[in-house]
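STRUCTURE:
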């Protein structure tokens, strides 16, 4: 049992570190963080008790009060996903049982430490109250979380699956008091052996919850890595004033080696992925996505992310990522920035026809690029030339065409 607790403590520490270190946090993540903290504290207390404390009453009899917090936190997490305007503190009172149980638990422990006496009646009363209250707690709140999960947007598909799986593990808890009461008679086991088995099952379930949270965050983080826009290494991402009147020569800020490293890294991550969708489903997603991009010009949003795009087109971000990576063979930013470059090329052609000197960087910002470096990088990747080279080529083509027309008419 100590091994299960130790692994659970270690795993919850890793999950906490991943959540805290995540570059992109959502409003609901704070509740997931608190759920992980509660599991970490719960298992840490138990590990300390079973390795240091000698009092058998404390080791095997006292029920830890932190179990009251799991159900409410999961329920709040589901409500926050369902409605981003939801304020968890609004339902602060659902933690009153955990607070009262915590006060009782610490009072009993303090009494034993100070007097060196075991208050058997107080422990029995505490256990009888908390066990059945936690049991009811772990039925009502997971059911409420499931109810919310079924009504959240498809955008939160991964979070919905996480809620389903955590609820599945939490269904174990309400059965443990019955197992504890009947197992001894059914299998001729001593109360101590039954207690160890029941507690091991409970701690294994908590370990399972931390593993689910860990897997969810790792999967989400890998998607953010795939969708992450390459950053310039040598040139700061400077925003330019729309008042600039002359196109300025620009240079590619990322070296070929760095660019190749990004492509290799992204390809490696993509290859590790398993296909969930059929090729036909991926093609349908891409067809819908292209239509939405062209009609709504979603690429003009300079804060566009995989998640925002997923919500805008009402397609699961996992399915969207898979279709982009495996069907289109492009990263999210490669796909989006191609639309932006096409927009700029169309604007440059319009300026050329109207004999207007274009402000290239202003056009880039209007098309959705957020920085000079990313604009330069993707423009050259798409056209094979820098913006200035592209303009000169267009100008030369126009002059040659004009000369030909003049000569022909003459």
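SEQUENCE:
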């Amino acid at each position: 049992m100590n091994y299960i607790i130790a692994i659970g403590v270690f795993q919850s520490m890793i999950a906490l570190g991943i959540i805290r270190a995540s570059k992109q946090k959502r409003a609901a993540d704070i509740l997931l963080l608190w759920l992980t903290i509660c599991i970490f504290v719960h298992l840490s207390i138990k590990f300390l008790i079973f390795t240091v404390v000698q009092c058998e009453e404390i080791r095997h009899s006292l029920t830890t009060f932190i179990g009251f917090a799991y159900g409410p936190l999961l329920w709040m997490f589901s409500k926050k996903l369902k409605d981003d305007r939801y304020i968890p503190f609004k339902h602060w009172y659902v933690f009153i049982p955990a607070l009262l149980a915590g006060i009782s638990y610490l009072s009993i422990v303090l009494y034993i430490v100070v007097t060196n006496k075991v208050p058997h009646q107080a422990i029995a009363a505490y256990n009888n109250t908390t066990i059945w209250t936690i049991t009811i707690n772990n039925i009502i709140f997971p059911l409420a979380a499931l109810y919310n999960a079924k009504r959240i947007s498809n955008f939160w598909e991964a979070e919905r699956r996480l809620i389903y799986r955590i609820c599945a593990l939490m269904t174990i808890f309400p059965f443990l008091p019955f197992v504890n009461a009947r197992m001894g008679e059914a299998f001729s086991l001593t109360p101590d052996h039954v207690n160890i088995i029941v507690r091991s099952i409970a701690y294994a379930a908590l370990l399972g919850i931390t593993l689910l949270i860990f897997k969810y965050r790792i999967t989400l983080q890998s998607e953010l890595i795939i969708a992450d826009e390459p950053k310039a290494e040598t040139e700061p991402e400077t925003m330019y004033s729309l008042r600039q009147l002359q196109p300025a020569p620009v240079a590619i800020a990322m070296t070929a080696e760095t660019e190749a490293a990004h492509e290799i890294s992204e390809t490696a991550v993509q290859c590790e992925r398993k296909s969930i969708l059929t090729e036909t489903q991926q093609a349908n997603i891409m067809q819908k996505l292209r239509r939405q991009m062209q009609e709504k010009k979603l690429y003009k949003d300079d804060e566009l992310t995989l998640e925002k795009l997923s919500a805008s087109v009402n397609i699961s971000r996992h399915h969207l990522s898979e279709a982009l990576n495996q069907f289109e063979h492009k990263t999210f930013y490669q796909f989006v920035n191609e639309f932006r470059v096409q927009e700029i090329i169309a604007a440059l052609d319009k300026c050329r026809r109207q004999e207007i000197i274009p402000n290239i960087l202003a056009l880039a910002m209007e098309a959705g690029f957020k920085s000079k470096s990313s604009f330069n990088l993707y423009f050259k990747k798409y056209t094979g030339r820098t913006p200035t080279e592209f303009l000169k080529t267009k100008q030369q083509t126009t002059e040659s065409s004009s000369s030909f027309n003049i000569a022909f008419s003459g």
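REMARK: Residues 226-272, 400-410 have pLDDT under 50 and may be disordered.
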